[in-house]
Predict the 3D structure of the following.
Amino acid sequence: MSDYGLKEGEIVSGSVERVERGSVFLQMGRATGYMPWAEQIPGERFRQGERVRALLLKVEEGNRGVFLRLSRAHPKFLVELFKEEVPEVKNGVVEVVAVAREAGQRSKIAVRSKDAHVDPIGALVGARGVRVSTVTSELAGEKIDIIEWSPDEAAFIQAALSPAKCLSVDLDRETRLASILVAEDQLSLAIGRGGQNVRLAAKLTGWRIDIKGFGSPAENEANEVTEAAPSDDGITEGEADEEMKAAKAAEAAPNPALAEAIADAGATAPAADEPAEEKSDE
C-alpha cells in the first residue's frame, strides 16, 4: 500500500482483468485497480488484457487486499497527461492555472508562463500540434481549448469564451456575474452546442456568465414592428399590399353578366365561314 500511496494523483497503468457491472477492474501487480463507470470517459470500451492508463485517485485497503480507485474522467488526468508530454509543464516553467472538463467531449485549460521568453500556449500545442494531439488521442478525441490565463478578469473571461469574439464585458463583482455582449453571428458560437462553451468558460473562470447578442431576437422583433408601422392614411404596408392584390384579382376575374351577353351574341351571330343571305329584289 505504501508503494501506491506515494503515487496518488499520478498516472498509473494496468491491464484489464474484467468488466463487471460497468466498473473496469485492472491487474496492477500486487494490487487491483478499479474504475467506476462515473470515472470513465463516455463511449470508451475496454477489452480483457488491454493496457489502460488512468489517474490514481485513492488507495483503499480492505479485507480482500489493496484496491486502487482510478479515473480517466477527472480534470487532473488531463493535467498529468500534459506533464508527461510537455517538459515546460513538468519543470514548472509553464503553470496550469485552471481546468474545466466534460470528459470525452471538450476541455478548457488555462495556462501561464513564468518565463517571458516561453509561450505557454505554444508549449502545450507543440511543433505542428504534436503534443496536444498526443493528449487528445489518449482522451478518445476529446477537444481541448488552450487559453492563456490573465490577471485581468475581463480579459480572462473573453479568452475563456473563445473561439467566440466578445464586444464587451461588464463585471458585477458582488454577485460575480459577467454580462457579455457579442455580435449576433457570434452568439451561437459563444454559447456552444447545448451551452457547452459558456458552461466550461464559467467553470474555468469561476464567474457566472450571461451572454447577449447585439442585434439578436429582441432587436429583430423591434425592426419588424418598425417596418410594419401604419402609413399616414392609417393603412399598413402589409394591408396596402393585400388590397392591391385583391384589386388585380378583381380585374382579372371574368364579369358574369358580360360573359352571358357575349355568349348570347355568339349564338345569334352568323358564323364567319357562312355566307350572308342575299336580299330579294321583291
